[in-house]
Amino acid sequence: MKLKIALFGxxxxxxxxxxxxxxxxDQQSVAGLMNQLRTQYPALRELSSLAIAVNSEYxxxxxxxxxxxxxxxxxxxxxx
Amino acid sequence: xxIYLTDQPIxxxxxxxxxxxxxxxxxxxxxxxxxxxxxxxxxxxxxxxAYDVMAIRQxxxxxxxxxxxxxxLRQVAITHRKGRLEIGDVAVVVAVSTxxxxxxxxxxxxxxxxxxxxxxxxxxxxxxxxSVWVAAHP
Lengths: 80, 138
Fold this sequence. Notes:
Chain A is α+β, with helices and mostly antiparallel strands. Chain A has helices at about 10-15, 30-40, and strands at about 1-5, 20-25, 50-55, 55-60, 70-75. The mean pLDDT of chain A is about 95. The N and C termini of chain B lie far apart (about 35 Å). Chain B: Pfam families: MoaE (PF02391).
């Protein structure tokens, strides 16, 4: 399936774009997607933390992604 | 609850007014401002980036969690700024009202501490000779 991933902050700089169109297996978990992204963009491994959000909520590693999900990569937050 | 994300200067008095409540004997406010230095480097400005829809959702969750932990909370207001901020600008305002003061201090601190952990907003510090995304690397 094809996923569109929104990127922010340093993740946007690492990938070089505000969003990423990614081909990923039809049965893909959040953990699997994270591995795929870290393989494709090794600089992501150097971050203090990395999370994936699905439909504006933090997603658990085992969550099975759907093509219609709104997916975002969340590098370490620093608001406040 | 009154939750906002804005690219305009925050009207602190308006945030305070939004938590006014006749059942409250205490209003507690936290105001986060832009400091002129960070780990020894002179900061010239900050750029805040937000995942708007999720940031608002997560701020709502934080306010909701505070209401569960402190059921006596009367009003909660959170306004976070995004975009370019200069030294001294207000980046975030948290205000709560409660019947008594001890709960207002505790709830206000919980809210700002949790915002900093979970709300998808990113701060880039601009120095005279470069810039860094805060907290990105260990």
